[in-house]
# Entry
Amino acid sequence: MSAAKDKWIKDELNNRGMTDNAENRKTLGKQYDAIYVGGNPKDWRTFFKQQFPQLAGMVDGGAGEKEARAIFGDLIDLFIDVATNPDNYDLTSTAGQAAFKTKVESTKYAQNTTAARAQWDAKDPVEKKDALKNKRDELRVEFAGLGLTMIELDNLALQALRDNRNNLEIKYMAFGKLSDRGGIMDTSEAGTLKAALKMYDYEPKDEEITAALTGALVAGVPQTSELLLNKAKILAKSKYRAFAEQFDQGLTVQDVFEPYRDVAARVLERSPNDITMRNPLYRKPLEAMNEKNLPMTIGEWTQELKTNKDYGWRFTNQANQQVSSVVSTLERAFGLIK
# Structure
């Protein structure tokens, strides 16, 4: 449980005069999740994600967030006011939620959406038919790898045109349709995301990939590929602390492992493909950290490979040649060979 959620529950227990027990905490916890989508109640992004889960990835503090502000304008101002003046809003009762919905619908963004729908509905039927066909054909090419049916493409085209949806919304809606049929793991996008996660030594579950590609809620939070990759990165920093700085600079676990892998392959005379982080023996340089919080050096790793019998260096050609060389030197020293 987050610190923000725990504090909110404690405050509500006190304000409402409720007994501090597991049942009441569970009840308030559900209310918190309903209001704040599992996020921080002091952050306007929480309310943005609640209203627009398909756009959760935009409010990242970077370029995406600038785009979100440009698109949503005064709607974000409303969310900021909710976050900074929570006592002015009732988001728990049916009446309070209806009142908040009215405020959302009165924003410029909502009015633009309503206007877009009215404009579309007023179009000539033949014009709409042609526009839908063109949009459907465009979407069929764009999402060819998803195998969407004609009905699904028609529905997606209608949503895109009637509501004037942006590209990000359309993408999440497309993957959402595929998720309903359970075929999302067969897409190239799923394969690409899974491969990226494995670069951080993270083995994702199918449901995590599906949620990230469809913007589905997990523990009340809308999921994105960025969130899942960030989770993998955080776990990597915890597991391989000596490389935390490198991960922050954009390197992956695979990136920092490769030099150790290549040395092990050369020293042990094996294919690099045989040296994987899944094997605890070869993961050792990733997990090692000296008293100065520095990782194992290549020299230390080479010594480990040659002296630790578990790696089998003594059976390599290099080891045998070194033994033969030592023996020859001794024989010469004792005059056994000329």
Notes: The first strand starts at residue 217 and ends at 218. The first helix runs from residue 3 to 16. The chain has three domains: 3-118, 121-220, 253-332.
